[in-house]
C-alpha cells in the first residue's frame, strides 16, 4: 500500500491541499489503481491473431492512415459541382465558408 507520506508528496506536486481524512482515502484509491495497473502489466500480450508473430502491443503501435485519400470528386459524384449551391443555401456564409453559431463558450 502506498504510504501517507507518498500521498502527501503527490498532493504537494499537484499543488493540492488535502486533509488527513482525504489522505487516507487517496491512499486507498491510489493503491487500488496501482494494483489494477500491475494486473494489466502482468497480462501476456503475445499471439495477435491479426498479425501472427507480432504482439498485440506492437501491432497497435503500427502507424496507419484512417483518412480517405484526398482526391477530386468524380464526375458521377452526387456532390460534384454543388459546393456553390450548398454555400448559397446556408443561412450565413462568408465567401466559400459557412458560418455557424458558437456552441462552445468560455464561462467567465
Describe this structure in words.
- It contains four helices and two strands; from the N terminus they run ααααββ.
- With 108 residues, it is mainly alpha-helical.
- It has a two-stranded antiparallel sheet with strand order 1-2.
- The longest helix has 23 residues, at 20-42.
Task: Show the helix and strand layout.
Layout: H1 4-13, H2 20-42, H3 56-60, H4 83-89, E1 93-94, E2 97-98
Antiparallel strand pairs: 1-2
Give the strand content: under 5%
End-to-end CA span? 41 Å
Q: Over all CA atoms, what is the radius of gyration?
A: 27 Å
Portion in helices: 40-55%
The main β sheet shows up as: 2 strands, antiparallel
Structural class: mainly alpha
Count the E strands: 2
Average pLDDT score: 78
| Helix-strand topology string | HHHHEE
Low-confidence stretches: 46-51
**Count of individual helical segments:** 4
What would the principal axes of the Cα set say about the shape? elongated
Within the largest sheet, what's the order of strands? 1-2
Characteristic key phrases:
single chain; 108 residues; mainly alpha; two-stranded antiparallel sheet; 2 strands
Amino acid at each position: 500500500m502506498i504510504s501517507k507520506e507518498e500521498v502527501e508528496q503527490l498532493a504537494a506536486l499537484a499543488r493540492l491541499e488535502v486533509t488527513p481524512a482525504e489522505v487516507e482515502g487517496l491512499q486507498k484509491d491510489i493503491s487500488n489503481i496501482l494494483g489494477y495497473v500491475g494486473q494489466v502489466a502482468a497480462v501476456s500480450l503475445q499471439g495477435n491473431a491479426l498479425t501472427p508473430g507480432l504482439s498485440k502491443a506492437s501491432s497497435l503501435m503500427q502507424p496507419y492512415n484512417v483518412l480517405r485519400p484526398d482526391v477530386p470528386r468524380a464526375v458521377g459524384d452526387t456532390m460534384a459541382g454543388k459546393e456553390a449551391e450548398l454555400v448559397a443555401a446556408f443561412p450565413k456564409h462568408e465567401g466559400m465558408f459557412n458560418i455557424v453559431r458558437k456552441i462552445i463558450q468560455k464561462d467567465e
